Amino acid sequence: MNNCIIFGGGGFIGSHLTEELLKRNYNVTVFDKINFSKDNLRSFKDKIKIIEGDFNNEYDLLNSLDGIDYVFHLVSSTLPASSNDNPVYDVESNLVSTLRLLQDVVKRKIKKVIFVSSGGTVYGIPKSTPIKEEHPRHPICSYGITKKTIEDYLYMFNFLYGLDYTIFRLANPYGERQNPLYAQGVIPVFLKKIILNEEIVIWGDGSVRRDYIYIKDAILPLVNSLEYKSDNKVFNLGSGTGYSVNELLDKIKRITGIDAKVRYVEGRKLDVPVSILDISLLKKEMNYLPKIDIETGIEITYKYLKEVLT
Fold first, then answer.
1. Consecutive 10-residue runs of the chain (310 residues): their mean pLDDT?
2. Residue 70, SS3?
């Protein structure tokens, strides 16, 4: 059997992951919140099983795992920028629920868990870049602390119960189906504001550098990891190249031909100045090589959003 469940499968990353799994003839179950939008799944909705439930409900979790071989954990109820506002909620809704999931996974003898962690927050302020997997993890936001703790629990469950897992510390994915109305996702947010002739607000002076990865490149290692066997359990997943916010704006201007209205405001303490991932381990272990450069990726995303927003 090759039955996969994706917790958070109705979202941006989950829908692309679902699509790729179907291409490779896996059976896919998407678990997402009650009454979630099916728009991202509409072109292949009839090929998957959909479960609407509460990730915080232990019975919903346990029942969703019937007949499942592989678990993808993409769920997060918070964002890096807002998680510090209510860290108790962050822990209750993400960490505690994940612990219940891991206990159920062990009971059900699931073959493997693939967890999407955060390459942009678990390391905190880096001592050097590009950041290797063995770099110390000192997150400065609750979101990153929760991701880090889930990673540690996966290690514990592997050590104590033999649970197989792979962790991907994902950089900043972008592309089709990413919601430009969310606070997360600089590229689609900027493109949406340009398309609608709205002002772009930038925290700080625009020098913050990040690693951006096109979504279809990002999901390939997640699927490949299902059959991957190794002592290496943690991988950075990004492009390995960093761009400042100002550099992104320049690229977007050249691609769209539009000079955006930009306003700079005081920076936020939670924004690390630079986050660029070293992806050499993933290249070595899974022959990973991103195919879509950032200019091409931005152009694809721009064309998609123009169709959606206009």
1. 93 97 97 95 96 95 95 90 86 94 96 97 95 96 96 98 98 94 85 94 94 98 93 96 96 94 90 95 96 97 93
2. strand
The topology under which CATH files domain 175-211+240-275+292-309 is UDP-galactose 4-epimerase; domain 1 (3.90.25)
Domains 3-172+214-237 and 175-211+240-275+292-309 share a fold: no
Return the pLDDT at 278.
98
Report the length, in residues, of the chain.
310
Q: Collapsing DSSP states into helix, strand and coil, what is residue 289?
A: coil
Q: Residue 243: beta bridge partners?
A: 210
User: What pLDDT is attached to residue 84?
Assistant: 83
Residues 292, 48: Cα–Cα separation, whole Å: 28
Task: Kindly tell me the burial class for residue 4, based on how many C-beta atoms sit within 10 Å of its own C-beta (0-12, 13-18, 19 or more).
Answer: buried
Is the separation of the CB atoms in 150 and 117 below 8 Å? Answer: yes
Please name which of 20, 22, 64, 13 lies closest in space to residue 40, comparing C-alpha atoms. Answer: 13
**Cis-peptide into 273, omega within 30 deg:** no
- Kindly state the helix (H) or strand (E) to which residue 89 belongs, with its residue range: helix 87-90
- Sign of the Cα torsion 84, 89, 90, 91 reads positive
d(CA 115, CA 205): 33
Nearest residue to 149 (alpha-carbon basis) of 99, 214, 213: 99
Q: How far apart are CA 31 and CA 5, in angstroms?
A: 7
Break the chain into its structural domains and give their ranges: 3-172+214-237, 175-211+240-275+292-309
Q: Are strands 70-73 and 49-52 parallel, antiparallel or unpaired?
A: unpaired
Q: Does domain 3-172+214-237 have CATH number 3.30.565.10?
A: no
